[in-house]
Amino acid sequence: TSTDAATQPRVVRAARGNQRTAKSWGAEAAKRMLMNNLDPEVAEHPEDLVVYGGTGKAARSWEAYDAIVRTLDELEPDETLLVQSGKPVGVFRTHEWAPRVLIANSNLVGDWATWPEFRKLEELGLIMYGQMTAGSWIYIGTQGILQGTYETFAAVARSLGRDSLRGTLTLTGGAGGMGGAQPLAVTMNDGAVLIVDVDESRLARRVEHRYLDEYTTDLDAAVARVVAAKDAGEALSVGVVGNAAEVFPELLRRGVPIDIVTDQTSAHDPLAYLPLGTTVADWKAEAERDPEDFTRRSRASMAAHVEAMVAFQDAGAAVFDYGNSIRAEAQLGGFDRAFAFPGFVPAYIRPQFEEGRGPFRWAALSGDPEDIYKTDRAIAELFPEDAALHRWLEKAGEKVHFEGLPARICWLGYKERHLAGLKFNEMVASGELSAPIVIGRDHLDSGSVASPYRETEAMKDGSDAIADWPLLNALLNTASGASWVSLHHGGGVGIGRSIHAGQVTVADGSDLAAQKLERVLTNDPGTGVMRHVDAGYEHAREVARERGLNVPML
Ligand code: NAD
């Protein structure tokens, strides 16, 4: 019947080129980016509408997906579509400067903000987990995280007093949508790395996309390969199929000379972390049959996993939590020294946040890689002094395999991003680029997130859990002319642990787009500087003074 067909998975791929079927580029771009999130080249499990990060979805159901696409095609240039946890719930008359889409995903009132409550509501079909860029339609595949991971490992090298990771061995876990960037980020920094994943298909996918050099099911062989690479000062990434809760303690026991340890298994969601004693084949069925027992077992395994990480630190390795909440889960699993190592933001990223720097990204609606190469050159010309940026653009041009619509990411800050946006808009207007460009960012960002185990861990003034900031960011981007704005709960670190906002703005070559881009791309990173000024960071104060940010009580 037609009802059955409406609920069936289908293969989605965004249209390419400069002809639109929607009535504005804002609506067309939102539609294409929703579709791009579900492109099998981009999404981890497109049949379930899951884009990345455990269960981060782009739409609540296939019926909701169809209704969003239909509504965006019909939407007038002065109307706004509201999306509640992946379902289109209303269209309102607004004005041309207003966003074409406003999105709220996974938000729950504080006392109810738990995974069991969330799952109950999800089971009833009332809510969806939006992760960060899954439900806000600006995920660009593994490249998105590659740049941040590259920056982080470069900072780790500096903290060890080194120019690069040459001659070091890194151990990590989780080769999924985000974690899969780790091996390439380490080899781009010239190091050797061993990455553990229980699911062989994830490692195979990373090899196929050239994010991982090789993988094996044989731990002895894997260890021999990476230790030889470390000793020879060669860049090499090796995957090994296994459970991190077993492999990490085993490597510790063997005394493998590991310098750096982290992890990106889906620990934020205990049902997305495989406990010892369960096979990959039985994973889903066992988690569904008894989620509470599965959670208890998975936390116990995380305790063993983190206990080994702490022991590596005790033995002298640099160890950090890579934003997946594994310390908190391991603590719940009964290991009381779980927080002995720091999160990566206070350890390596915060100084960049003080300048409003963070993962700025854009995608070419033409589908033509040449458009991205032209924007790469434009960015290099706009920022001639930034050596790290130039190194990244060069390496990304060589090594990054585009997934879905061609896209690029780089870290730019306050009073930088709008220059890029205006330049891209001119290039669209002049015909140098063959179709509009969408410009957005991750929610892992300086001003738009409250996440006490990650982006706002250990804030100077203790304001880690205050979530007024992401709300102000979303309201300001809405007032500034963004094409779509989203407000989410629980991304990255899980339900109950974060509140964050996103924006995407389209450069369609028009004068109106130029005015909107200038405001949004100045104001959005400006909230990051403001947040860090307010928390008492000296460097943020200098940036505000030098670059002219108006902070009334500075
Ligand atoms: P994902 O679900 O796509 O991948 C997780 C991987 O972990 C899977 O391949 C799975 O097979 C593997 N895994 C699960 N249990 C395992 C175990 N016991 N041993 C070994 N492997 C196991 O998730 P993702 O998108 O890659 O995200 C990973 C984590 O990183 C999430 O918790 C996410 O919230 C977090 N994250 C961090 C950042 C950051 O900037 N640091 C950014 C985004 C996401």
Automatic annotation (TrEMBL):
Its EC number is 4.2.1.49. Belongs to the urocanase family. Pathway: Amino-acid degradation; L-histidine degradation into L-glutamate; N-formimidoyl-L-glutamate from L-histidine: step 2/3. The gene is hutU. NAD(+) binds at residues 53-54, 131, 177-179, 197, 202, 243-244, 264-268, 273-274, 322, 492. The active site is at C410. It comes from Microbacterium algeriense. Residues 351-545 form the Urocanase C-terminal domain. This is Urocanate hydratase. GO terms for molecular function: urocanate hydratase activity. It comes from the Bacteria. Binds 1 NAD(+) per subunit. SUPFAM superfamilies: Urocanase.
